[in-house]
Design a protein that fits this description.
Structural class: mainly beta
Shape: globular
Largest sheet: 16 strands, antiparallel, barrel
CATH class: Mainly Beta
CATH superfamily: Porin
Oligomer: single chain
Number of strands: 23
Number of domains: 1
CATH architecture: Beta Barrel
Helix content: under 10%
Distance between the termini: 25 Å
């Protein structure tokens, strides 16, 4: 555990210990998956966390090197706190406890300057895409679209502002690096922005968005650090990447994306496209691309949640014990997921993913997901028998999840 992690963990414990207990103030208590306790002065505190356990199977062609077959993983195990403080301030602190380590995911302080304007300081997402900004607790499939990992999206330390009024949301910020990499002294910096127009037309929720990002990698290349763009096959439990670029001396990245979504009753549709242009020392400047189209239907009649320019929690119409008639929500979904890592002399391979998903949500805070994917590869990094690099891989994955 790093010194930064230890310090933040101690700070979180101290925060919980120092926050006044308002257990006797019944009017300022409510349950949101976990108890939120507050006071009339503006203080509040609520524990938060999630556990996601995955099991999957990867079936690759003969001759492909790697550890395939059945595998399992504690995908995420997080614990933290969130709340408010007098004067319009708020806070969120969360630790990732999977893989036997403690790593900070979110560590932010917010300030609501006025009803439409909020400032945020700390480690948080830098507005990369609708798919990335939507919490893994509410995603349709076990893993997000391939481009989000391939393009190295992650939370970073920075300062940002969000303007939200009616259907308009505008976000912009300046960021450095993830907390775990701050000791590297690489002087990286990025400028990030996103604009969303999300009108509600009758019973239909629409979403149209665009984002733009520029990142300077500082002296990473001078210190011998290179960048790779690569992706796993739908499930995180395997370390095998069928497509990957070679290690590149990347000085800077410029990327931009487009988002569109619609929610109407039990149906939803969403599509995104994202482009990443790189500036390298080799003279090659590959332009990489990823995107997806997704369709979903709650056969039990629920509506996919949406709030704050991203997808949110789905509220179950008939939750609770099955013997009492509370079966929960059932959703079916399909997705086409495309990732192209070959461009301008750089061969990283192409992936076309055809995916189907079934999700059961017995209560608002419990989910079970089952996914199947047929992934077609071209110019795969790993050759099959006879040296063939054009082949297909079948993947099955299930997840059990609880959050609060």
């Amino acid at each position: 555990m790093t010194k930064v992690t230890k310090a933040c963990l101690l700070a979180a414990v101290a925060l919980v210990a120092a926050t006044p207990a308002y257990a006797q103030d019944d009017e300022n208590q409510r349950f949101e998956g976990a108890p939120r306790i507050g006071s009339t002065e503006g203080w509040s505190i609520k524990p938060r966390g999630r556990v996601q356990y995955d099991v999957g199977h990867v079936d690759a062609p003969d001759g492909v090197a790697g550890d395939f077959g059945w595998m399992d993983e504690l995908r995420r195990a997080r614990i933290g706190v969130e709340g408010t403080a007098p004067g319009g301030f708020g806070y969120t602190f969360e630790l990732e406890l999977a893989d036997g380590i403690a790593e900070i995911t979110d560590a932010i302080v917010t300030y609501k300057a006025a009803p439409p304007l909020t400032f945020t300081v700390g480690q948080h997402n830098n507005f990369q895409s609708l798919e990335e900004l939507t919490s893994s607790r509410f995603s349709t499939f076990v893993e997000r679209s391939a481009f989000t990992d391939a393009f190295n999206f992650e939370r970073r330390l920075g300062a940002s502002a969000t303007y939200a009024r009616g259907p308009i949301t505008a976000q912009a910020g300046v960021f450095v690096d993830n907390l775990r990499d701050l000791d590297d002294g690489d002087d990286t910096i990025s400028l990030d922005g996103r604009f969303v127009y999300a009108p509600r037309v009758g019973a239909t929720q629409l979403h149209f968005g665009a984002s733009a990002h520029w990142r300077d990698n500082g002296d990473l290349v001078d210190r011998g650090t290179t960048t790779r763009y690569r992706q796993r096959p739908l499930i995180h439990a395997t370390d095998v990447r069928f497509i990957a670029t070679p290690a590149l001396p990347v000085d800077a990245e410029t990327n931009y994306g487009l988002e569109a979504a619609v929610i109407h009753g039990p149906f939803h549709a969403v599509a995104e496209a994202h482009w990443l242009d790189t500036d390298t020392r080799t003279g090659a400047e590959p332009s990489l691309f990823g995107g997806y189209v997704e369709l979903g239907w709650f056969i039990t009649g629920e509506t996919r949640g949406y709030r704050g320019a991203r997808f949110d929690r789905t509220r179950v119409r008939r939750g609770g014990a099955i013997e009492e008639g509370g079966f929960g929500a059932v959703q079916v979904a399909v997705r086409y997921d495309h990732l192209d890592l070959s461009s301008n002399g750089v061969t990283g391979g192409r992936q076309a993913g055809w995916q189907a998903g079934l999700t059961w949500i017995p209560t608002d805070h419990v989910r079970f997901l089952a996914n199947y994917a047929r992934l077609d590869y071209r110019d795969a990094r790993l050759p099959a028998a006879g040296g063939d690099r054009d082949y297909a891989v079948d993947v099955f994955a299930v997840r059990a999840q609880l959050d609060f």
